[in-house]
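Input structure tokens:
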């Protein structure tokens, strides 16, 4: 899994370095899709997000993220994973600009499972609500980089902290 994360990061950096600055922006009717990495967790999470501009300032969509880890403890194998599909809505403060600050909320469901010596159980899965703010920068008319801070408002905490940092790349569809 570490190889996947490294390849994703290298590909993201290469794309950003090879693109020229151009005029692009958030707008009504636009669609954006791209990979994301959640960095303020152990292990690092990865996934994809989608957003659609329903009006001049409002975008809706979704994000799906995955975390997983496995260890061997005293001769026993242990692994866990969390899959989090979330619905999101965001307000974009400067539509039409190359620099796109936004804030929003996400409602999701955490699908948690663990496995001890090949015995699988689904642990504390459940609903949660987060608030987030971010900044998207369009490097070209078709590619943007973004960063987000997300704060868990309600629901279970799977990582020992309520704050998460997410970075990603958005491709205009």
């Amino acid at each position: 899994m570490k190889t996947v994360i490294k390849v994703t990061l290298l590909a993201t950096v290469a794309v950003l370095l090879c693109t020229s600055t151009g005029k692009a922006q958030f707008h009504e009717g636009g669609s954006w899709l791209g990979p994301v990495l959640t960095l303020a967790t152990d292990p690092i999470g990865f996934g994809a997000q989608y957003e659609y501009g329903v009006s001049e300032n409002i975008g809706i969509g979704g994000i799906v993220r995955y975390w997983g880890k496995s260890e061997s403890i005293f001769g026993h194998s242990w692994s866990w994973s969390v899959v989090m599909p979330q619905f999101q809505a965001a307000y974009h403060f400067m539509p039409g600009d190359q620099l796109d600050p936004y804030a929003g909320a996400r409602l999701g469901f955490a699908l948690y499972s663990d496995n001890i010596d090949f015995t699988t159980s689904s642990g504390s899965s459940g609903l949660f609500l987060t608030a987030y703010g971010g900044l998207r920068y369009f490097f070209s008319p078709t590619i943007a980089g973004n960063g987000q801070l997300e704060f868990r408002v309600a629901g279970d905490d799977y990582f020992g902290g309520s704050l998460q940092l997410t970075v990603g790349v958005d491709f205009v569809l």
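The mean pLDDT is 83. The domain at 2-172 is CATH 2.40.160.20 (Porin).
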